[in-house]
Amino acid sequence: MKLIVEDNWQKNHSLLRDTFFEGVASFLTNRKEKPPTLREIKSRFPEVKVDRAIEEYIQLGLIARSDRRYQLIVPVYNVLSSNELIEKKVASLKTILAEWSVESRRAWFVLQGQRLKKEPQVYFVEEMMELFYFRELCSDQLIVQELADEPHAKTIPAYFSALREGDASLYEPFAYLGDVNTEYYLDQLAVLFEKARKQSRRIRPTIFLQSLVDFGFLTDTFVLRSVVEMTTQTPIQQAPFAKADACVAELTNFEKRRIFVELWHFFEKAPLTIVHQDEWVFLANAES
């Protein structure tokens, strides 16, 4: 089984990264018919301080205790059992979304990502597969959003997520940024985006400017690749989302993320980063 901890699950991630949790979860799953006692769990994991760990998992809502026996309450999803449902939903949504503009489709993906973010979940899958990823960073001046079909895309939100999780080695080409503070970084970008938009000649080379090149927002000559001025007539604000929303209502996060990644593959070529600054929107494709 593979444990999935969604990015915005704000509880103690370090406990879930412990190999004991995956081990005890697998043990409890295999003992569904007759949940084990604490003594049995201790016997299975003699090298672990089981009492304390189990209590922490109970507090996190991952394991339940009843009549001195223990059960896993983290969902375990079987990929094959949901394939038929996923295929039907994807087919319906392809037809609906195909009638929309690119801007409207992307806005819908952002909306769905924000909904997932509000109720992040922890679950196991019996085998790994591609999932949809949405991450968002906010400051007083910028909103930075990631839409991706992989966990470690070349995007600003994914980079900072990796730093938080201790996975900086996944972004070795960006090592020059060091352990830069997220807020400070976004403040620097806000200045640079404004200068680039106005084609200012007073943009001096910095690590922040170089990162905008490397993340795909600027060309090597510091010209913006894609910038859009939003107006009240923008198609994003006119999108008929209700029918598409109904297709994914009542589904689990896991099912939604499987559906969204299939749709993303169909309509887009690569992970996308969207930056909002006042009425301006800047785009970066991870393949740039």
From TrEMBL:
Protein name (record): DUF1803 domain-containing protein
Domain of life: Bacteria
The species this protein was found in: Enterococcus camelliae
Short name of any one Pfam family annotated for the protein: DUF1803
Lineage, broadest ranks: Bacteria, Bacillati, Bacillota, Bacilli, Lactobacillales
